Amino acid sequence: MKRRNGSSDSLLTKAGGELDDRFKLAGPARVLFNKVFPDHWSFLLGEIALFSFILLLLSGTFLALFFEPSMVEVTYHGAYVPLQGIEMSRAYESALDLSFEVRGGLFMRQMHHWATLLFMASILIHMLRIFFTGAFRAPRETNWMIGILLFWVGFFEGFFGYSLPDDGLSGTGLRIMEGMTASVPFIGPWASAALFRGQFPGTDVISMIYIIHVFIFPLILLALITVHVALVFIQKHTQWPGPGRTEHNVVGFRMFPNYVMKQVGFMLFIWGVIAAMAGLFQINPIWLFGPYEVSVVSSASQPDFYVMYLDGLIRLFPAWEFRVPPYFTLPAVFWPAIAGMGLSVLLPLVYPALERRFTKDRGHHNLLQRPRDNPGRTSLGVMVVVFWTVGAVSGGNDVFAEKFDISLNAMTWAGRIGIVILPIIAYYLTYRICLGLQQHDREVLAHGLETGILMRDPNGRFYEVHQPLAEPDEHGHTELEYNGWVVPKKMNRVGALPPTDRGFFKSIEEPSENGAARDEIESGKH
Amino acid sequence: MSAHTDSARDEGAAVDLSDPKLTRFEVYKEGLRRDDIEIIHYEPRFAKPGTKAEKRMERIVAGLFLLSGLFATLFVVAFIWWPWEYEGAATWRDPQTWYTPVIGFTLGFSLLFFAVGVLTWAKKLLPIEELVQDRHDGGSSKEDRRIAESTVDTIVDDMGLRRRPFLVKSALLAAAPLGLAAVAPLGALIKDPADMYTVTGWNAERYNDGEPIRLMMKDGALVRPDMVSAGGQITVYPAIDHGATNQFPTAPTLLIHLREADAAKLRENLYPMYQDVDAIWGNFVAYSKICTHVGCPASLYEQQSQRLLCPCHQSQFNVVDNAAPVFGPATRHLPMLPITVDDEGYFVATSDFLVPPGPAFWNRPSLPEEDEK
C-alpha cells in the first residue's frame, strides 16, 4: 500500500517536473491555485451567460452541419405532411429537415434557442446587479462598457439567428428591420439595398446574415467575453462590505479547489436545466408558421423577449412623420427604432462617466454599495426597468388584448401614457423606499431591534421592548456606525429567539436553548 | 491539519524552506504568504475524519455521480435505439412522439445529477475556509512607471518621432487612404436602390410590354367581379411571371367588394388623385396590402367597422376613407390600385400605384396629393 502511494506520488511529481522544465509553471500555477474569490450568489449571474454561451457554440456547430443558408426556391417533399408540395426556400426546408429528419435535430434546435434566451436574460439580470450595486464604478468602467457591447452584439446575434430559418415569423422580423433601415436619414435606402442586395427580401439576405451569425458575431462575442473575464480576473472581483472586508483586500475562498468545483458544478447545472428544457418545452415551432411570404402574417407575431421592448416602442410611438416636400421623409419608425436603439446603446455606455462627473467621485471602489445607500442611482435604474417593461408588455399588447379581452386601442393608449408616467412614479417611489430603508437601518443601530414584546408600565403606558445591538448609554441609545452592510432587523438574526414554530407539516414544540434569555427579556430586564 | 487563526497571523515572516522539519502545510502556507494571502479560518468540515456523518455524505455524492452515469447511459441508449423518425400525425401512445422529451430528460438529469454531486462535494466535504488576499488596487509603483516612461521615450527617440515630423505626417497621410482601402471592398455590397421602392409588379411597361396587368389569385386564377361577394375581400397579385412570389414584395393587394352604402361613402371621400384616374370600379376597391408603417401585410379586415388592421404594430386604416390611417403608428394611407374590368370580364390594373406602397423611406417623395385631408 505504502509503496504504491509513494510511486504514484513520485509519478505526479515527475510529470509536474517535466512540465515545469518546459513551461516554467510552478510560480504562475501557484498564484492561480491560491487566488481568493469573494462569495455571494449574485456574483454568479454572469456565469450563467458564460455557460449558456459555451452551450450555444456547441449546439450551434451541430445545427450548422445540417442547415443550408440558401434562398433557392424548392418544393417541399419532406416528412411533415401539411407542408408537402409547398414552395419554400432551401433554408426553410433544411430547417424543417433538421426538425423532422435529423436524429436529435429538434432537440438541438430547441437547446440552441433556450440557451439563447437564457444567455440574454442572464446578461440583463447580471447588468442590473452590476448597476444597482455600483460595481461598474472605477476601476471597472471598461468592463461595464464591454458588458453593454456584449448585450447588443448578443441582441443582433439572436435576432439574426431566429431570422435564419426563413419561416413566416422570421421573415416578418426581417421585414420590420428593413422598414427601420430604410428610415435612416440619407443612407437608409442604400443601406437596405446593400443588406438585401436590392429590394427586400431578395435572395441573398439569409446567406449574408448566416456568415454574420456563425462567424463574425460569435468571434466578436468570444473576444469580448475573453477580455471581460480576463479583466474580472486581473482587477479582482468586487465584494460586499462586511467584517474584515476593506477596499484593499478580498475575503473569500481559494480558486482551487473550492471555487473551481462550484463553477464546474454550476456549469453542469445550467447545461442540465437547458437540456431538460430543450427536451420538455417546445420553442419556435417553425413548421407551424409556414414559409415566409410577403403577403401573409398572423396576429400574435412576437419577437424573442429581448427584442420585444423595441417592438413595443415602435407600436406605441405616435404617427409623427416629418416631411420636407417634395424630397425627404423622416418616417415615424425612425424615432423609436433608430434613435431609441441608439440611445439604448449610448446611455448605458456613458453612464459611469456621467456618474463620475455629477458626483465628482473619482476614487476606486472595490466594495459594493447596497442599492438603498445610493437612492438616486437606484431610482434611475428602476425607472429604466419600468420603461423597458412597459415597452416589452406593449410588444405583446395584441396578445394581452386578446387573452384578457381588453380593447387593443386601449392597450396602446395605456402603453403610450404608461411609458411616460410610470417611470416617473417608479423613480419617486423607489427614492422614498430607499430613504425609508436607510432610516430604518439607522433607527435599529441607535435604538435596537424591535422584539415584538409589548409592555405596560405602572402609569398605563404601552411600549415595545427594544434589544440594543450594543451596550446603551443612559438614554438607551447606542452609538453604532452604519458600515454599508446588512443591519439585523429580527431577533433571530442576532442569535436570540430561534423560530418558535419548528417542523414542516406540524409544529414540533421544543423548549429553545435560548429560553432563559427570552424569559429575561419578557420579564423586562432588558 | 487544522490551522488556527492566531498561528496564521503570527507568521508574517518568510519561513526557511531549507528547514527539513517543515511540514507540507507549512510549505503550502509559505506559498499563500507569497501571494499576500492570509488564512482567517480553516478547518476540516468534519472534526473527526471517518465519522458516520462524513461517510453518509460521501455515499450521497457517490450515489449522485452513479445516477448521473446511469442517466447518461440511458441518454445514449435512447438516442440510438428509441424510435425517432417522424411519421406524420401521431398520438401520445406512439413512442416516436416521446423521442425529444426522453433524450432531453435523460441528458438534462444526467447533467443535473453530476452538477449536484460536484456542488455537494464542494459545499459539504471541502474544508470550511475563509482567506483574505491583498488587492493591490491602483496603478504600478512609481519606480515601474518611471522605468516604463523612460523606455517609451527611448523608443520614441530611437525612431525619431519628434525629430522627424515629416516622416510622421507622411505616414499618417498614407494611412488614411490605406485604411479606406481596407474597407473599400465592402463597397461591393453597395447597390443603387434606384426605383425599387417606387416600381411594383403592377408596372405594365416593365413587366407586361405595356399591356394592362390582370389581377390573379395566389394559385394563378384570374379574378372576375363575381368571385368576391359583397362585404368580402381577397388578396390579389399581378398576373405576371412569379407575380405572387416574394420577387414582387410590394405587389400584394387587397381587393375588397364594398357594400353599396360603404361604396357610396368611399366615393364621397375619394382623394382627387384617385377620382382623376377613376380608381375604383363599381363597388370594388383595391388597396396595397403592405402596411405603410414598416411593411407587414395589413391583412386583418374588420367588416363591421370597415377597418384594415396590421397585426404587427396595430396600425388601422379606414377602408371607406381611402384607407387613411385612423390609429396606430402608420402615417400614410394604403395606396389604392386603380382597377377596371377588361373586355373579357377580368379585373385589370389601369396603372401602377400612384404613390409608392410599403414603408416610408428617407428619400420618399412626399406629394402634395397625399395631404388632401
TrEMBL record, chain A:
Obligatory cofactor(s): heme
Transmembrane segments: 41-67, 113-132, 144-164, 208-234, 264-283, 333-354, 375-393, 413-431
GO molecular function: metal ion binding; oxidoreductase activity; quinol-cytochrome-c reductase activity
Superkingdom per UniProt: Bacteria
Region spans: Disordered: 504-526
CC annotations in GO: plasma membrane
Enzyme superclass (EC): translocase
The name this protein goes by in its record: Cytochrome bc1 complex cytochrome b subunit
Membrane topology: Multi-pass membrane protein
EC number: 7.1.1.8
Reactions catalysed: a quinol + 2 Fe(III)-[cytochrome c](out) = a quinone + 2 Fe(II)-[cytochrome c](out) + 2 H(+)(out)
Start and end residues of each Cytochrome b/b6 N-terminal region profile domain: 15-241
Basic and acidic residues composition-biased segments: 516-526
Gene3D superfamilies listed in its UniProt record: Cytochrome Bc1 Complex, Chain C (1.20.810.10)
Keywords recorded for this protein, A-Z: Cell membrane, Electron transport, Heme, Iron, Membrane, Metal-binding, Respiratory chain, Translocase, Transmembrane, Transmembrane helix, Transport
InterPro entries given in the database record: Cyt_b/b6_N, Cytb/b6-like_sf, Di-haem_cyt_TM
Chief site of localization: membrane
Alphabetical list of Pfam families matching this protein: Cytochrom_B_N_2 (PF13631)
Keyword Cell membrane applies: yes
UniProt GO BP: respiratory electron transport chain
Subcellular location field: Cell membrane
Automatic annotation (TrEMBL), chain B:
GO molecular function: 2 iron, 2 sulfur cluster binding; metal ion binding; monooxygenase activity; oxidoreductase activity, acting on paired donors, with incorporation or reduction of molecular oxygen
Primary subcellular site in the record, as a coarse category: membrane
Domain Rieske: 282-348
Keywords of this entry: 2Fe-2S, Cell membrane, Disulfide bond, Electron transport, Iron, Iron-sulfur, Membrane, Metal-binding, Oxidoreductase, Respiratory chain, Transmembrane, Transmembrane helix, Transport
InterPro entries referenced in this protein's UniProt entry, alphabetically: QcrA_N, Rieske_2Fe-2S, Rieske_2Fe-2S_sf, Rieske_Fe-S_prot
Location within or outside the cell: Cell membrane
Pfam families: QcrA_N, Rieske
TM stretches of this protein: 60-82, 102-122, 171-190
Membrane topology: Multi-pass membrane protein
GO cellular component: plasma membrane
Record-stated family: Belongs to the Rieske iron-sulfur protein family.
Role noted for this protein: Iron-sulfur subunit of the cytochrome bc1 complex, an essential component of the respiratory electron transport chain required for ATP synthesis. The bc1 complex catalyzes the oxidation of menaquinol and the reduction of cytochrome c in the respiratory chain. The bc1 complex operates through a Q-cycle mechanism that couples electron transfer to generation of the proton gradient that drives ATP synthesis.
Protein name: Cytochrome bc1 complex Rieske iron-sulfur subunit
Biological source species: Glycomyces terrestris
